[in-house]
Amino acid sequence: MASVLEIKDLHVSIENKEILKGVNLTIKQGEIHAIMGPNGTGKSTLSSAIMGHPKYEVTQGEVLLDGENVLEMEVDERAQAGLFLAMQYPSEISGVTNADFLRSAINSRREEGQEINLMQFIKKLDKQMEFLEMDLDMAQRYLNEGFSGGEKKRNEILQLMMLEPKFAILDEIDSGLDIDALKVVSKGINEMRGENFGCLIITHYQRLLNYITPDYVHVMMQGRVVKSGGEELAQRLEAEGYDWIKQELNIEDETVSAE
């Protein structure tokens, strides 16, 4: 039975300022959803709140993974339950190699005695790094330390492919990528696509969706999802911008002042 991620009436504040004002969204495994919207409408706030960033206070609503409220879980428990976040600005961690980080992350989601053995891990890691056109030496470099922007984003997709979560939230994974890196990152996401994987892509640009065809496209404005459709919606946004949605829904020019 496919897993389901349900976001219900989610309200989120930062320092007593409400950013999300009732987000509703349902994602099933086997589906890829894209969220688009002007700057400052709360797109990145949504991803951070789902994964439990302490800066963001959930004041109302639920995020259910197969009926269980992940907002009641610790951050590591959310990851162990099958959620994954590719961050817009991946952190650098000195003293921890890529390989050690990935093996520890995989084993944290397994029962004691069922840990991945070293040879299985190395075989899988080498295969995925070659697929993503990454230098195999990067496995022994400290996590993201000294990586270029494109290398960091490829490394996020490497983590995604190694961990195989139920649901991935990709927060502006295309930000700062040249066309070659964009194609490689997209190739990795498309490789994950299937009945055991659901994905929420947060992006400003339709160009990423030229390589990853979404099943659903949602537009966020003023802290809510205001319109949903298929890939044709993203194409129209690219051609016409957001003004037509504002006019159609009588939305005034106002942002929530935070991503």
TrEMBL record:
InterPro entries: AAA+_ATPase (IPR003593), ABC_transporter-like_ATP-bd (IPR003439), ABC_transporter-like_CS (IPR017871), FeS-cluster_ATPase_SufC (IPR010230), P-loop_NTPase (IPR027417). It holds the Pfam family ABC_tran. Residues 5-247 form the ABC transporter domain. Keywords: ATP-binding, Nucleotide-binding. The keyword Isomerase does not apply. CDD domains: ABC_FeS_Assembly. It comes from the Bacteria. One of its GO terms (molecular function) is ATP hydrolysis activity. Belongs to the ABC transporter superfamily. Ycf16 family. This is Fe-S cluster assembly ATPase SufC. It comes from Macrococcus equipercicus.
